Structure formats: structure tokens, C-alpha cells
């Protein structure tokens, strides 16, 4: 059994899911995978079940209905802690996160980081195939987060991460409020508030070529307003470990 678990939430990812699973299992380092599928009507979970016959380190948790990115990851975090993994990763199914970079995040945590972020902006702007409007929205969203929260993270909305187990044991999951991309901001902010060391590892982010993006105006609005709410709430919370 590996000590490292890659959590991949899915909703209608039949075009990508087999390829991403095979890519991770063909890496030179051994990772296990947990797919959290939110009742994909396109049969994503069926593909995963077939691959489980081939890969003993492939796990599947199915949920009823589209319940949101944040709740999917929290479900996965709890599963990972219950099953004694030491390094827990977040990764998208659509190859926007290069599986080859998993080992770089792992090494960052082995070498002293508590949370390692695959960062698009720590060394310039490393994004491929996004329209300029989306690049600017993402870049300035991270700048906005830094101004409001005072955390020194260049890629605050990044969703490619590795956590050491102690971080997820410490953060009270029932107090994580957000379910969309604001979830990614909240987890980084909360980890820093608890005194954990968060480092950014440069990656190249490549937009999906197959399947459909899950970004929406509602998700963006939650992130924009949620940052202010999160900062105000933090004034009345104690972060002790």
C-alpha cells in the first residue's frame, strides 16, 4: 500500500477518466487514487469500476447528485484519514494538472512543506490554452485574495495540491463553508492560520481539451464574496493546534 493518495472528483469525465488513471499508475512513483464521482450520468463510475479489476490501488466513492467540489474533497479527505494515508493530493481529471508533477508536490512535503501548491503564477504566468480573459480573471482573483486576506500565495485559487496528513487532521472540516473554487482559497487560508507551512511549486497549467469545464458565474461569485466573509469570520476564530 502506498502512503500517497490522489483524490480526483468527477462529474461527466468519461473522455478523460481512463487516461488520467492509467497515467498516474504508470508513473515511476507509486500513488493510489480515490475517485469521488457525483453520480455522473455519462458512465464515468462504470469506467472506474472496470479499471478497479486491473488496479488494486484504485478506489471509488460514489455520491448521489452533483454536490460540489468542496464537499467531494472533504469526503475524500475523511476517507484518506480513515485509511492511514500520509500524503493526500487534490488533482483534476481533465489533464489541466500534469500527473508528472505529483512527485514534485510530494517531494516538497517530504522536504518540509505542510501543504504544497502546484502554482501557475509563482514564476510568471504558466497557463496554456486559456483565453486571455480567463487568464486575467484568475490572475487578478489571486491578487484580490492576497489584498483581502494578507496571505502571501501567488496562486490562491490553485486546485493542484499535496497535504501532509497532520494538516487535514487539524483543520475542522465541518467549519469549511465553501463548495466551489472558494473552497480552494479557504483551505489555503485556514492552513496558514493554523501555522502550517505552505509552499508553491511551479507548474504549467494546460486547459482541458476534452470534456466540459465546470466553471460558472455562481462559482466565481461565491469566491469573490466568500473571501471577504472568510476574512471577517477569521477575526472571531481561534486557530490552535
Automatic annotation (TrEMBL):
UniProt keyword Transferase, yes or no: yes
InterPro entries found in the cross-reference section: DPM1-like, Glyco_trans_2-like, Nucleotide-diphossugar_trans
Q: Does the keyword Transferase apply?
A: yes
* Name of one Pfam family that matches: Glycos_transf_2
Stored Gene3D superfamilies: Spore Coat Polysaccharide Biosynthesis Protein SpsA, Chain A
Identify the keywords attached in UniProt to this record, alphabetized: Glycosyltransferase, Transferase
Gene Ontology molecular-function annotations: dolichyl-phosphate beta-D-mannosyltransferase activity
Q: Which is a Gene Ontology cellular component entry for this protein?
A: membrane
UniProt domain Glycosyltransferase 2-like: residue ranges: 6-170
**Per the UniProt entry, what are the Gene Ontology biological process annotations, in alphabetical order?**
glycolipid biosynthetic process
The entry's family comment says:
Belongs to the glycosyltransferase 2 family.
Q: What is this protein called?
A: Dolichol-phosphate mannosyltransferase
Amino acid at each position: 500500500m502506498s502512503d500517497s493518495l490522489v483524490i480526483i472528483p468527477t462529474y461527466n469525465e468519461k473522455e478523460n477518466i481512463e487516461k488520467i488513471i492509467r497515467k498516474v499508475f504508470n508513473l515511476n512513483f507509486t500513488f493510489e487514487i480515490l475517485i469521488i464521482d457525483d453520480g455522473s450520468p455519462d458512465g464515468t463510475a462504470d469506467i472506474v469500476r472496470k479499471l478497479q479489476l486491473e488496479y488494486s490501488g484504485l478506489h471509488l466513492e460514489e455520491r448521489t447528485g452533483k454536490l460540489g467540489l468542496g464537499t467531494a474533497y472533504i469526503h475524500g479527505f475523511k476517507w484518506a484519514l480513515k485509511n492511514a494515508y500520509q500524503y493526500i493530493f487534490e488533482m483534476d481529471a481533465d489533464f489541466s494538472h500534469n500527473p508528472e508533477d505529483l512527485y514534485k508536490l510530494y517531494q516538497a512535503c517530504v522536504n518540509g512543506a505542510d501543504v504544497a501548491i502546484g502554482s501557475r503564477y509563482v514564476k510568471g504566468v504558466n497557463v496554456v490554452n486559456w483565453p486571455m480573459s480567463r487568464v486575467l480573471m484568475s490572475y487578478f482573483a489571486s491578487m484580490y485574495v492576497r489584498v483581502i486576506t494578507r496571505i502571501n500565495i501567488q496562486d490562491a485559487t490553485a486546485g493542484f495540491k499535496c497535504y501532509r496528513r497532520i494538516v487535514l487532521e487539524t483543520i475542522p472540516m465541518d467549519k469549511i463553508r465553501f463548495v466551489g473554487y472558494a473552497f480552494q482559497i479557504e483551505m489555503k487560508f485556514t492552513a496558514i492560520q493554523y501555522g502550517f507551512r505552505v509552499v508553491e511549486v511551479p507548474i504549467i497549467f494546460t486547459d482541458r481539451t476534452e470534456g466540459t469545464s465546470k466553471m460558472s458565474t455562481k462559482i466565481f461569485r461565491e469566491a469573490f464574496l466568500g473571501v471577504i466573509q472568510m476574512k471577517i469570520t477569521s477575526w472571531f476564530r481561534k486557530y490552535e493546534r
